[in-house]
Design brief:
Layout: H1 2-14, H2 25-37, H3 41-62, H4 66-83, H5 85-95, H6 102-109, H7 114-141, H8 149-157, H9 164-183, H10 186-192, H11 200-213, H12 215-234, H13 240-258
Helix pairs in contact: 1-11, 2-13, 3-4, 3-13, 4-7, 5-6, 5-10, 5-13, 7-9, 10-11, 12-13
């Protein structure tokens, strides 16, 4: 049974092509995402405000449990692609010459497509797994209890006698890399293609093909996403109001630029 599902998913993925792109093409995705952001700013920025508010909620819940907070915020990056579904839908409408609005978000978030729900649940499990791993690592190996960002900075990041911070970063990279590779174009593809043409596993295979054929541009794209997200978090989360929808719109253009339409 699993082999049959894998074979079907592989056939679905192979029905799509992967376009060649130059190394610096991700900068073009950011430029087009910025353009889309201001095509319908109120709706786009409202999505960013919700993501920033969610980040503030995480901070409020866990600010005195930084061993948990560090993993929670990085886990938030894992599930962010599914939270941007409405932004992908808006950019698709703009590509089609239509004007997106609140109705676009309502249609995108109606739970009619089980594939997006399944993918969201899988990302949630991955994010939860990282939170637990991060919390366990910091709690067990930190030289002293870590209660707040200052403790994490001085007792983990700047602690010359310990390599805990390097280990924490390495573990996060090992866990995050396959998740990012599986989702870099998967959710926009699922939004864009009907269930009869593309399933969850087929979308994941397509995303991996994109990464394997363009490792350098995708690595640059991941670095840009990480850098902008850190900037957004470093501005007391206010920067996420703009950065989160900007990256969401740009991710749609990454999918459209990398993946060709299905050959009918």
């Amino acid at each position: 049974m699993p082999d049959r599902f894998s074979e079907q998913a592989l056939r679905e993925s192979q029905a799509f092509g992967v376009r060649p792109i130059p190394l610096l093409r991700p900068l073009g995705w950011l430029a087009r995402g910025w353009r889309d952001l201001w095509q319908c700013p109120l709706v786009s920025l409202s999505q960013g405000a919700l993501m920033a508010a969610f980040g503030a909620l995480l901070w409020w819940v866990a600010h005195e449990r930084f061993w948990l907070l560090s993993g929670t915020f990085s886990g938030f990056l894992i599930v962010a692609p599914v939270l941007a579904t409405g932004l992908y839908a808006m950019s698709r409408e703009i590509d089609l010459g239509r004007r997106p609005g609140w109705h676009t978000l309502r249609e995108a978030w109606r739970p009619r497509d089980g594939r997006l729900i399944v993918f969201g649940v899988l990302l949630a499990f991955a994010g939860t797994g990282w939170v637990m791993c991060s919390a366990s690592l910091v709690t067990v190996f930190a030289p002293e209890p870590i209660r707040n960002p200052r403790d994490f900075l001085f007792k983990v990041v700047l602690n010359d006698a310990s390599h805990l911070f390097e280990l924490w970063l390495a573990l996060g990279a090992v866990l995050a890399a396959p998740v990012f590779a599986s989702s870099v174009v998967a959710i926009p593809a699922l939004l864009d293609q009907p269930p009869a043409k593309l399933g969850v596993l087929g979308a994941v295979f397509t995303s991996w093909r994109v990464v394997l054929e363009h490792p350098a541009p995708i690595a640059l794209w991941a670095a840009l996403i990480l850098a902008l997200t850190v900037i957004g978090m470093g501005t007391a989360l206010l920067g996420l109001v703009v950065i989160a929808p900007w990256l969401g719109h740009a991710s749609w253009h990454a999918y459209r630029d990398l993946v060709t339409r299905r050959r009918d």
